[in-house]
Amino acid sequence: MCKISDKVRPKWPIPQILTFLAKFFPTLPIVPTPDLLYKSVKVDHKKVIAQMNPLRYRGKPRLGTVVELLRVTDILSRKLCDVELPFIVLHGSADVVTDPEVSRELYEEARSEDKTIRVFDGMMHSLLFGETDENVEIVRNDILQWLNARCK
User: Fold this and answer.
1) What InterPro entries does the record tag this protein with (predicted)?
2) What pTM was computed for the model?
């Protein structure tokens, strides 16, 4: 996540209010967000597996965490044009957790001469776990092909 989409970014004065409150209550879990598991994982039986993950955070995001995400993504979004390393961006077109347009923006603005973007039609956020086994295999193969082409 290198930028928060303007579609979901809170409008002024919300970020300023959150920043002020976070100075006093950084651990306060008050940020209203839906459970992203159901927006990330397409396959029902994989949702059950993901739900059982003991490392999965289940609470609301803490105020300090959200303020830091806003701050860091603001910095990163201004530096997309500084990216010079080879990279591949993989994104699902049906991803509502992170906007595919942000990935396209990274691809367009990056200075790298070796950059690849692949937006998978109809796929969601969890490309390597939450999709059908056939879709996971497609994504894995794309990653391996990209890596193999650069390891020779």
Assistant:
1) AB_hydrolase_fold, Hydrolase_4, MAG_DAG_Lipase
2) 0.87
When divided into structural domains, the chain yields a total of 1
Q: What is the mean pLDDT of each run of 10 residues along the chain (152 residues)?
A: 80 89 94 86 97 92 92 94 97 94 96 98 97 98 97 84
Structure tokens at 44: 């029902």
Q: Examine residue 3 and state whether it is found in any structural domain, yes or no.
A: no
> How many angstroms separate the CA atoms of 54 and 57, rounded?
8
Q: Where are the alpha helices (DSSP H) in 1-132?
A: 14-24, 37-40, 44-52, 63-78, 100-109
122: left (phi over 0), alpha (psi -120 to 50) or beta: left
Domain assignment of residue 1, yes or no: no
Q: Judge whether 118 lies within some domain.
A: yes
